[in-house]
C-alpha cells in the first residue's frame, strides 16, 4: 500500500471510529469467501458493516444506537452454563464454564451492582461471558481479590459516560494509605476503612490528616477497603472539595480538603531522597510525585540493593546511574520492600 493510500485508509478508519457506537477488530484468517459474504450480510441486516484491511485485520462496525443482545438478569440464584471468550494472539478461545450462582454486590467502581461468582467457576479476568442464547452477559474481573462479573449494562453505561464526558486527571491529596488488617483495626478501634501511612508535609492534607488516621468515607461514599479508596480518590477532580470522614484515636471527625491539581511531571528528575544502609544499599525516604522514581513505582521504605551494575549502591551511585542515562534510556534497580524482592526500571 502506497503512503497516500495509507493516509486515506487511516482517515477513513478515523471517521468510522467517530461515527460508530461499536467497533470490533478481529483477525479474519480461516474465513472462506462464503463465510465473509454471510458475515457482511448479517452485519448489513443489523445496520452495521465490515471493512477488511489487508494484512491487518477485519473491522466490524455497528450503528451508534445498536448494542446487540444483552442478557437481562433473571433468577441469579440459579446455576447455569455460559460461554467464556478469552482474548488470544491468533483468535479468541471460546469454551463453556459452569457458574453455580451470581451474588449481586455493590461496587464503588460501577453504576450498578456487579455479580460475585464462585472461584470454582475458573473465569479468567478479561474474559467476555455469553449465555447459551448468544446474549452478552458481561466481562469477568477481580475486585478485592474476589472473582466477579461486571454486567454488560454497566460496561455500556461507563462507555457512554466516557464518550460524553471529558476525562480530567485526578488531583493529588498528598497521602498514602494501606488496608486495615485485624491488628491495625484493634490498634485504632476502627472496623472499616483504610489507614493513612504517609502525609506529604507540603501537601494539601498536611494540616487535616495525620498518619494513623482511618479514612472511612470520601464524599459520603463508604471506603470499606483499599480498592474503594483507589476508586473514589481517582475521581477527585482538581478544585472540588474532598470531604473525608476519619477516625483518629477512636474519635470520628470530618475534614474538608480542597483538591489540588496533579503534580507537575518532571521526567528528567530522579525524585528520590535516599539514606545509606551500610553493606546493603540505600533506603528510600521520599519519592517526589511526577518524577522518574514515581513512574517506576518506588515507595518510601524501599531499599535499593542494586543500581545497574552497582551492588549495595550508595545514594550517590543511584543518582549517577540515573544521570548517566540518555533520553529514553533505562537502568535496572533491585529493591527490597518489606520481605519482598523485586526489580523495577528507572527510565529517562
Shape: globular
CATH class assignment of the largest domain: Mainly Beta
Named CATH architecture of the largest domain: Beta Barrel
DSSP summary, beta strand count? 22
The main β sheet shows up as: 7 strands, antiparallel
How would you describe the overall organization of this protein?
The protein has 348 residues and is an alpha+beta fold. The protein folds into 4 domains: 3-62, no CATH class; 80-164, Thrombin, subunit H, CATH 2.40.10; 175-258, PDZ domain (Pdz3 Domain); 272-347, PDZ domain (Pdz3 Domain), CATH 2.30.42.10. Helices cover 21% and strands 35% of the residues. The protein has 7 helices and 22 strands. It has helices at 3-19, 33-45, 152-164, 182-188, 226-233, 292-296, 315-323; strands at residues 22-26, 49-53, 57-62, 80-86, 93-99, 103-105, 114-116, 128-130, 136-143, 146-151, 175-179, 194-199, 214-218, 221-222, 241-248, 251-258, 272-277, 281-287, 303-307, 310-311, 330-337, 340-347. The protein has a 7-stranded antiparallel beta sheet with strand order 5-4-8-9-10-7-6. Strands 11, 12, 13, 14, 15 and 16 form a 6-stranded antiparallel beta sheet that branches. Strands 17, 18, 19, 20, 21 and 22 form a 6-stranded antiparallel beta sheet that branches. The longest helix is centred in the N-terminal third of the chain and has 17 residues, at 3-19. The chain is globular and about 70 Å long. Mean pLDDT is 83; it is low at 63-67.
Structure keywords:
348 residues, alpha+beta, Thrombin, subunit H, Pdz3 Domain, 4 domains, 7-stranded antiparallel β-sheet, 6-stranded antiparallel β-sheet, 21% helix
